[in-house]
Amino acid sequence: MHPLSPKTYAPVDLVPFGGVYLRQKAAQAAEEMFAAASVEGVGITALSGYRSYETQVGTYNSWVATYGQEQADVASARPGYSEHQTGLALDIGTGGACDVQVCFKDTDAARWSAAHAHEYGFVLRYPWWQHETTGYWYESWHFRYVGRAEAAAFHSSGAPTLEDFWGFALSSSE
Question: What phi and psi values does residue 68 have, to the nearest 5 degrees?
Answer without folding.
Answer: 90, 160
